[in-house]
Amino acid sequence: MTKLMFLGSGSAFTVGADNFQSNMMVISDRGNKLLIDCGSDIRFSLHAAGFSHLDVTDVFISHLHADHIGGLEYLGFSTKFDPRCSKPRLYLSQELVGDLWSRSLSGGMRSIEGDIADLDTFFDVRPISRNATFEWEEIEFTPIRTIHVMNGYFIFPSYGLFFVLDGFKVLITTDTKLCMDVFEKYYEEADIIFQDCETAKFPSQIHAHYSELLKLPTGIRQKMWLYHYQPGALPDCQADGFQGFVKRGQTFVASDVAALAQIKG
């Protein structure tokens, strides 16, 4: 049975061992693993879950903030120079590939002993074309281009994922503003939703804030688990009609989704 495990469920600036950044792992029934984002604390979150770089053969990157890509240097070097490893497959939107290397990773990874490296030196890069999908372990993943940051000149995009887990439809928003024009049809179609949720006292305007999510229709909130929240006291989200705040290490399987489908049905 395929599983979705949250290696962490906190915000970019989560601290301490109680939680880690919001990176997650899809584990197939054959034991293969797809890492969804690879943030700067991935060494620790993998270790806490009983894994290491040896377990990471496939990675999807949603966007270019450090809590989602900051561990790629560790992963790239570790797998390249460990003879037990093959080059990890790296799935990401075609529009992110150039900036991932030139603006984020090349400073520390471009020079290796006796050679000049590039992204392909470390990863089997699988660019995803606009409006295309990618397949892993016979699961088709649909990237959803959303708005995370608008800097006044252009959109800094993030890509959510929509896929079917053992017959049930799953939406992971990744980091995003509350974009109803983008997500409404997926909210309606999904059996279970993992929603970026900011809980800070002063909203940053670049994440969906809890106060905004409260205004969603009851039928959507009933399918929604909240993650990427700030440290500290959390609201009683179950009293507000949500499923709950995802905890570090929490794992979801098809039976969890089936139970949700019965509730909303």
Please, could you describe this protein's structure?
The structure is a single chain. The protein is an alpha/beta fold. The protein has a single domain (3-264), classed as Metallo-beta-lactamase, Chain A, CATH 3.60.15. Helix content is 26%, strand content 28%. It is built from nine helices and 16 strands. The chain has helices at 42-48, 66-69, 72-80, 94-109, 119-122, 180-189, 210-213, 218-221, 254-264; strands spanning 3-6, 24-27, 33-36, 58-60, 89-93, 111-112, 115-116, 124-128, 134-136, 139-150, 155-165, 168-172, 192-196, 224-227, 244-245, 251-252. The chain has a seven-stranded mixed sheet. Strands 9-10-11-12-13-14-15 form a seven-stranded mixed sheet. Strands 6-7 form a two-stranded antiparallel sheet. Strand 11 and strand 12 (168-172) form a beta hairpin. It starts with a strand and ends with a helix. The mean pLDDT is 95.
In short:
By secondary structure, the protein is α/β, with parallel strands linked by helices.
